[in-house]
Amino acid sequence: MKKAFITGIGGQDGSYLAEYLLDLGYEVYGIIRRNSTPEHQQSRLDPIRNNKNLHVSYGDLNDTSGIERILREVKPDEVYNLAAQSHVRISYEIPQFTVQTNSVGVVNVLEALRNNCPNAKFYQASSSEMFGSSVDEDGFQRESTKMTPVSPYGCAKVFGYNIVRNYRNAYKIHASNGILFNHESPRRGSNFVTNKVVKAAVKIKLGLQDKLELGNMDAYRDWGHSKDYVKAMHLINQQPKPDDWVVSTGVTHSVREMCDYVFSQLDLNYKDYVIQNKKFLRPEELPYLKGDSTKIRKLGWECEYTFESMMDEMIEHWIHIFKNTINK
Ligand code: NAP
Ligand code: GDD
By percentage, how much of the chain surpasses pLDDT 90? Predict the structure, then answer.
């Protein structure tokens, strides 16, 4: 039985990845941070909580001794470093924590791996936010696109990306980067724009809310589904040679188009409800993302969800939650 260790297992991707690996027959280990409300933090793991092959313990990327101890005891075959302060706007509010976790945290895990299980395969959750303002002439970002990050989050992720390549070359560690474009699901944090819009639109439809406050509606994002993207993470760690891969749908929509789709599905016009609040604008915005994932598609990876089927699933999720609330 293969053993995998996942940091950030309580997050959107970590929870789907854990489910996927358990289904494949892995023994899965993961860390969550200590939190004053554990029920809330661990809710994404509820579907697999009783699986005997799941082992969750407390840990933090900034607590090196704990990471060292787990890797020494578990000696995993595969390590997935998904833990991060993952909110771009909030990275302006807590830049030092963001850098500590998203940059230094990567070194901490790589060092622990190098010292305790040097043959383990390492996956780093790199991000399209690293491209920042760079777009190739054909309108896509790809593995070769220049990285000009425009946020503390993006800058920190570029360091993580580079240190993975450095450890790969210097120490011959099987360390890879997945450069993932935005991906969503019903498990997405509700302060990310897709889930914020869907949740509010459903509440408006049910008479539970009047208005929705957003920031910049003219940014474009390439939105895929987290369930599809965790399969890419696993595929990357199965490759004979470590490398860097872009994971994306190749389709881009503006925040405005996304709002239009969601409200229309509920027979509403977003223009009647959405207002701008400057507090949700960013000091520097990343205006446009569209990823070329040709390289990983050559390995057989593909998306099962479309933008529309993913947004529909999120709408259904929130309708179910709020109808149950109303009926109680
Ligand atoms: P997420 O839901 O925010 O999950 C991140 C997890 O990391 C959370 O469970 C969080 O725990 C944990 N974490 C934060 N700081 C930590 C620390 N110091 N030590 C240990 N754990 C810590 O994010 P996600 O959407 O699943 O994304 C997974 C990874 O992919 C992240 O690294 C993100 O930056 C990257 N990524 C995401 C996307 C995307 O569109 N989703 C795209 C590209 C890359 P708490 O709940 O305790 O904060
Ligand atoms: N969160 C949020 N809230 N975003 C808003 C809002 C709002 O009220 N109004 C407009 N937006 C715009 C943002 O300015 C941004 O252009 C876009 O919606 C998407 O924002 P997020 O959903 O917060 O995602 P992100 O693109 O900043 O970051 C996500 O994708 C990255 C990959 O490119 C995160 O998942 C990162 O962790 C990930 O690396």
Answer: 95
Asked whether 85 lines ligand 1 (CB < 6 A), one says yes
**pLDDT of amino acid 35:** 85
Centre of ligand 1 to C-alpha 86, Å, is 5
Strands (E) located in the chain = 3-7, 27-32, 54-58, 78-81, 121-127, 175-180, 183-184, 212-214, 220-221, 224-225, 244-247, 253-254, 274-276
Q: Which ligand is nearest to the CA of 61?
A: 1
**Is residue 44 lining ligand 1, measured as CB closer than 6 Å?**
no
Active site residues: 127, 129, 153
Burial (CB < 10 A; 0-12, 13-18, 19+), residue 199, is buried
Instruction: Report CA(273)–ligand 1 centroid distance (Å).
Output: 30
| pTM confidence score | 0.98
Report the alpha-carbon distance of residue 7 to residue 112 in Å, rounded: 13
Report the mean per-residue pLDDT for the chain: 97
